[in-house]
Write a structure and sequence with these properties.
The protein has about 130 residues and is an alpha+beta fold. It has one domain: Alpha-Beta Plaits, CATH 3.30.70. It contains 3 helices and 4 strands, in the order H-E-H-E-E-H-E. It has a 4-stranded antiparallel sheet with strand order 2-3-1-4, with no helix packed on it. It is elongated, with a radius of gyration of 20 Å.
Length: about 130
């Protein structure tokens, strides 16, 4: 018997009488995470500069939707300096095949525009349902 506070008690949910159950199917997607550091050895990238880059370069390439997370990270620069910086993580869910060209264009433009050494890209196969 389940107690009222048992975690499994809360998982026993059924549709209300007369309510139609939606048929959600898991689909194979690719999750791409791009980590944009907002500083270099010489300067900080401010929020206005980031928003301009985001609106002009990222949104037009992925108008279907994405998520941006404000974060903080650190890494060892090739100069030997430990950089601690604000970071924007852009998360994009894409159906296969992955459009690598759009992603590489964004990375290249960010590095050129803000004199960045790198943009971290993480690609993971995922199952998603909406």
């Amino acid at each position: 018997m389940l107690s009222p506070l048992s975690p499994t008690h809360f998982l026993q949910i059924s549709p209300a009488r007369g309510q139609q159950v939606l048929n959600t199917q898991k689909q194979e997607w690719i999750k791409v995470e791009l980590y944009f550091g907002l500083s270099s050895t010489t300067r900080e990238i401010n929020e206005q500069e980031w928003q301009q880059f985001f609106n002009q370069e990222i949104t037009p390439r992925f108008p279907e939707g994405l998520t941006v997370v404000d974060s903080y990270g650190q890494y060892l620069h090739s100069s030997g300096l430990l950089l601690k910086e604000r970071t924007k993580i852009v998360i994009i869910l894409l159906k296969q095949p992955l459009n690598e060209q759009k992603i590489q264009e964004i990375i290249k433009l960010f590095k050129e525009t803000f004199q960045q050494e790198s943009v971290l890209k993480v690609t993971t196969p995922v199952q998603a349902e909406f």
